[in-house]
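Much of what follows relies on a compact textual record of a protein's fold. Here is one such record, which you should read through line by line:
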Amino acid sequence: MKLDFHTHGKLAKRLPFSTQYTDWLFGEAKAAGLDALCLTEHFNTLQFDELYGYLLHKSKREGDTLLLENGLRIFPGMETDIAEGGHILSLGSAEAILELNQRLAPHKQPGHFLPFEKLLDLFQEYNILVGAAHPYREGGHIPELPQEQLERLDFLDLNGKDVAKDRKRAEKLTQALGERLHKPVVSGSDTHQAVQYGCIWTEFAENSITLDGLCRQISKGAYRIVVSPQAAFQVKTACILKRALKEIHALGGDYVSVLLDSEKGM
């Protein structure tokens, strides 16, 4: 099973949710060879609940996952900012993620983010997996947090954007942190734009449709991280396209129509 642990369903968190754009993303994810992805949308994105409502309506429930018509399997999740600086990934049932998102409503703006320990206490009330997203990304302070708090994590994210920028540094630092905490390292692309799918993924020996099944494989080390030889190019291209599409929106245009119409003409 080829799984991407860190993905987004929108172009940007301050842009309105588009069913067409999200459909395009998931179609491209499948075309890129992925069997499954973790939808770790930003907890303070516009229309978070509408995104998940749409997916629940158009998918089939299998275990903890949402199975789309194209065969792509989605593990529901969320990416949450913490007061100390940094992002935390959480994976769970769609109901758990939606409920957590509602409970985090008072903490979605800078200056009101929960401290890491309090966020972990909240997450502990649910059957979810919790990971540190791109722990060495500039502006974050996750590695500096107290050891006893970090040991409550379930996994660390070797992030596609960081690998594309400096693979040696990203791998060295993230793996070292995993060894220090005795926590597994998995990988995610961190894509908001489909060109980035497949720059990095985690390949498991078996398919999983539940968090428990996924956790068992992670615990056994029954997986490998694969980095595309084109990762740097994919990430750079995706970032350029993301900026261009956001600019189209800022100028009053319909970036979704521009994107999809350009693909039809190829």
Observations:
- The chain has one domain: 2-264.
- The first strand starts at residue 2 and ends at 7.
